[in-house]
Amino acid sequence: MRILLVEDDDSTANFVARGLTEAGNVCDRLGDGQDGLFHATREDYDVIIADRMLPGLDGLAMIRAIRAAGNRTPVIFLTAVGGVDDRVEGLEAGADDYLVKPFAFSELLARVNALGRRPPVQQVQTVLKVADLELDLVRRAATRGGQQIELLPKEFTLLEVLMRNAGRVVTRTMLLERVWDFHFDPQTSVVETHISRLRAKIDKPFPVALLHTIKNAGYSLRAPR
Fold it and tell me: 3-class SS at 178?
């Protein structure tokens, strides 16, 4: 496997890099979080091992940025910060495993091998596009023709559902379930009201309409033919 090791402590980095290499892996060693982010997002690795306390960019920020870039390479935090809250924070930042120093190299190697055996994770789509309308799911931003569109949280979720089903009819019931988590009809005009507000933002300022009402069926967001 090809492994990226981001560790600023020389003795730990030397020990881990040597062990990984002796086990038949290729190990790229870096000591700075900013360098780690640069290499992780531009090179292909099977596993990333990272300390939490790094110069340049701390480990949490580095992993968050790697995940925000759509990179799903398995990550192990190797750190002296081992409280329960610290471990939870590391895993929620995007790490797949967490090993506290001091550690046994045999355990680290076993965890690396376990992560390396996982099937590749399908890349998550982070930007949805229909014609000149774009929805950035990471930045939570919408634009049309390069023009920023301000959306309220429910409007954003509504547009996301419509864009994920671009070209298809999305029924009122489907929208109630996926946007409002209603599994019954609340007998309100909540869907119609939000559709109207969304249309006023993504369609009315522009010459071509993308959001269409399909009579007795639902709604469809589609690019013009």
Answer: helix
